[in-house]
Amino acid sequence: MKWTGRFAGYNAESFRRDCLSGLIVGIIAIPLGMAFAIASGVKPEYGIYTTIIAGILISMFGGSRFQIGGPTGAFIPILFGVVMQYGYENLLIAGFLAGIMLVLMGLCRMGGLIRYIPRPVTIGFTTGIAVIIFSGQIANFLGLRDIQKHEDFLSNMKEIGMHLSTVNVYSVITAGICLAVILITPRLFPNVPGSLAGLVISSVVAALLFEGKVATIGSTFGPIPSTLPSFHFPDVTLERIGQLLVPAFTIAMLGGIESLLSAVVADGMTGTRHNSNRELIGQGIANMAAPLFGGIPATGAIARTATNIKNGAVSPMAGIIHGLVVLLVLMLFAPYASHIPLASMAPILMVVAWNMSERREFFHVLQSKTSDSVVLLVTFLLTVFTNLTTAVEIGLILAVILFVKRMGELITVHKVLPDPSSKHAKVRPHMVTEGHDCPQISIFTVEGALFFGAASTFEQSVMRTLQHRPKILLLRMGKVPFMDTTGESKLASVVKTWKNNGGMVLISGIQSQPREVLKRTGLYAYIGEQHFFDHTGDAINFALARLDQNRCTGCRHFAFRECAGLSNPELSPKQANPDMHPAHQV
Predict the structure, then answer these.
(1) For the chain, what is the mean pLDDT?
(2) 89 contacts: CB under 8 Å, gap ≥ 6
(3) Does pTM top 0.85 for this prediction?
């Protein structure tokens, strides 16, 4: 059998490598799945169920060879908010709706649109999520009692401050051991998952030395079942759908962004190329199926995907095996998981938060002191102090506004005249001064996109010259790559005003996109096809043939034809007025 697509060239050696990688990633995923579920406000086994079901389906139907899917830290603040406001059952419905949205996004080929989300926005909300995750584990690290969970950051910090007197020294010791092992293991034993080693060692120490003195998964959530839950379709009603559309959309958008970012990282590490639309469909299928078995929303996990690649994965089979490994561990060792201290889970999530914080990129953008710094800071602060939905919405809007402002400032409209000292008679802005201009023709060089953010600047710059009542307006538009309908409207206003004053408008060098806009709106025909030129020199010749030479007689302006350095049989030296300044004779 000849393998094709993501399994091209697959053989027995490939399967062996996938098995090894899937085993390692599966072991790593177990503590993370439980920790993410607990931090999201649900039972730890729901994270395991998600790892198994979503992990297998994302690998089967996704668009990347190496993607490892499952619950992730990025979802924690969103899922916790949904659970707090709507409850666990409604979280399942929101996840199911998000899956439908992701499938529709993939079918509508929207995978490529994710790349248009500004980097400062993604860094801002990712760092904000990291702060929320880290701070959310302080209580478990310290073993604080009677902590009331809140949706907002400030209330949670206030709650921790009010209960600092309930610090459990045994929890602190357990968490400290776990953190130390997590940090030391990669240096001493690079092939051993630090989170798993820390979880096992700290749990054993707590069970032997601090039995009954540290809160565990079992004492807090009850025993973990050793089997998958039975199929259950949530009770979906129109009223619930209406309530959950916004949370579902937030889950879908974040899931899409995270999964595609993870796929891009995988591409960079392996030199492959993922299918973004298929990836969204695969994510959607996984998120539709996971809630039917009690699972929470899932997406591509960058750290686990990178680990998968580093351990030699060849195909999506590694991701499928990783899910099967988690299922096998659940069936065999679930009872032992009940003895894991919550204090052992806290350092795992704290390290995850530290690693996902993108702190170097955050400070790099912040130190640039540009508009990107503003977008980054606003998105970050709103993520921490409000919620992710508000942060992303405001961040995107602010990024668009500042981008439009920057682009609007980039457009330049210079009044120019030919420079006689130039070998090729190029037009230059410095040739136009208060006492050095042509009264009959105004030439403007326009550079930059002529869109709604810059159209008013263009109109004001050109209309200022109308007070001198020049006969001809020549617009050099060879460096205008784009024009929208607002830009066309402002150009039309200039053209109509000029014509109403008895003038003529010429345009040279116009590019294909602006030309098509003018043709569709009818402005091209209104200006007249004969008034469009490929080169400025042709437009000047056309203008010179229609200028009134006598208008320059006796004035202190130079004759335009001489400055242009162009010959025109209709304006010969014999026609020059002897009373004119020598520099003005033609």
Answers:
(1) 88
(2) 234, 235
(3) no
For the chain, give the percent of residues with pLDDT over 90: 70
What residue type is 515 in one-letter code? R
For 413-437, the pLDDT digits (tens) are: 988 887 766 555 577 776 776 666 7
pLDDT in tens, 146-174: 899 888 899 999 999 999 999 999 999 99
Burial class of 551 by CB neighbour count within 10 A (0 to 12, 13 to 18, 19+): middle
Exposed/middle/buried for 484, CB within 10 Å: 0-12, 13-18, 19+?
middle
What's the whole-number mean pLDDT along residues 428-451? 80
- CA–CA separation, 547 vs 388, rounded Å? 63
With beta carbons less than 8 A apart as the criterion, state whether 543 and 474 touch: yes
Strand arrangement, sheet containing 412-418: 427-428, 412-418, 441-447, 472-479, 504-508, 532-533
277-317, pLDDT tens digit by residue? 999 999 999 999 999 999 999 999 999 999 999 999 999 99
CA angle 257, 261, 263 (to 5 degrees): 120
Residue 559 near residue 552, CB atoms below 8 Å: yes
Is it the case that residue 119 has pLDDT exceeding 80? Answer: yes
CA distances to 49, 421, 443, 457 from 433, in Å: 76, 16, 13, 20
**For the packed helices 371-385 and 388-410, what is the interaxial angle rounded to 10 degrees?**
170
Bridge partners of residue 70, in order along the sequence: 299
Nearest-angstrom CA–CA distance, 389 and 310: 34
Q: In sequence order, which ranges of 87-168 are alpha helices (DSSP H)?
A: 88-107, 119-136, 138-142, 153-162
